[in-house]
Amino acid sequence: MDWQTSEDSQAARWISDADVSSLAGLPPATGAWRDGDPIGRRRFAGIGPLTLESGVVLPAVRIAYETWGERAKDGRNAVLVLHALTGDAHLTGPAGPGHPTAGWWEGMVGPGAPIDTDRWYVVAPNILGGCQGTTGPASLGPGLAEWGGRFPYLTLRDQVSAQVAFTDALGIQRWAAVLGGSMGGMHALEWAIGSPERVERIGVLAAPASSSADQIALNSVQTEAVRADPRFRGGDYYGATAGDGPHRGLALARRMALLNYRSAGELNARFARSWQSGISPLGDDGRFAVESYLDFHGNRFTRRFDANSYVRLVDAMSSHDVGRDRGGVATALGTVTAPMLVLGIDSDRLYPVADQELIAAAVPSAIDGPAPVVLRSDYGHDGFLIERAAVGAQIARLLAV
């Protein structure tokens, strides 16, 4: 989940000229990064074949990643930052060739920043099944054709297994910290439980210990929106011309997701009942400003993401359950030994504070005891991305432990 909006306080004027120009032309069949596209700041690491929990073997898996800072000779200053559902390895830095958007956590990483690169060596990988350079459905598979609909189902633990193999490929024995928000927070929890000897600190931001029935239901309607688009073609659309890919289904899924990422209070305060372009709501033309907001972000999303990846990653989120085959959630969380920051957002309606309260109460090494840090924010779930000063202060506190 990411935040890429203008902060124009006048709802009816929130789209800038630059925003409008970014949507010029027909949407591509996929917004995935493809071999031959500008590399940008990406680096690549091969981790060899990977056996998934299903027993399927993915051959020759590649991880795309970016780094900041200098690695210490003993490798003890390495921090792993794991992105949310629609993020990627471009943690910080401008948009440009190879990077359709600016970094998703600007201001959090760099000299003197909360994750201070004068001290820490920061690594951010694109997750397995993603679409920005790591092996995923848009990658070439057997037969030198895109995996497409053949790409196998992934669990959250499969993605963490790939991250562990990536860690080995980099020659890092132990991370000084593993940090993540939302889906990245789910990964961080799996690191803390499944590979405790590889982590010194854990930061879990706005994430649950397991996906609830309500959260799985929200996920399922999004993936169905993608699959129901006739241009999805069972996941085999990579040869389609611009405008002939499953952009309508993907944009609709994105609109649905945005309603979970933001709070009702923020949408009501920001847009109220304002009407786009001043056209009367009694007529047949025009839209409410909030509809324009959702349309714009859905349409822009199709230019930087892949429909197949969206389905696979959302399904992986639904698989999340740290207690599976470990005696239940409380038992699994009770095994965590690394100091852990557990942070929630008071207006989060996707992963509400009760989810973080459960984690903090069960983890013996939570740095704030049996209660999470709860930030006040009007922005809902996306508060962990937007409230950078407050979140940064908490991360800096964890790194000082």
Features:
disordered N terminus, alpha/beta, Rna Polymerase Sigma Factor, Chain: A, 32% helix, 401 residues, 10 strands, single chain, globular
Structure, described:
- This protein has 401 residues and is of the alpha/beta class.
- It has a domain at 1-30 and 212-318: Rna Polymerase Sigma Factor, Chain: A (Orthogonal Bundle), CATH 1.10.1740.
- The chain has helices at residues 17-22, 156-170, 183-194, 213-227, 247-261, 264-271, 289-301, 307-318, 329-333, 353-362, 383-386, 388-399; strands at residues 43-51, 57-68, 78-82, 109-110, 115-116, 121-125, 177-181, 202-205, 340-345, 373-375.
Write the layout of secondary structure elements.
Layout: H1 17-22, E1 43-51, E2 57-68, E3 78-82, E4 109-110, E5 115-116, E6 121-125, H2 156-170, E7 177-181, H3 183-194, E8 202-205, H4 213-227, H5 247-261, H6 264-271, H7 289-301, H8 307-318, H9 329-333, E9 340-345, H10 353-362, E10 373-375, H11 383-386, H12 388-399
Parallel strand pairs: 3-6, 3-7, 4-5, 7-8, 8-9, 9-10
Antiparallel strand pairs: 1-2, 2-6
Helix pairs in contact: 2-3, 4-5, 4-8, 5-7
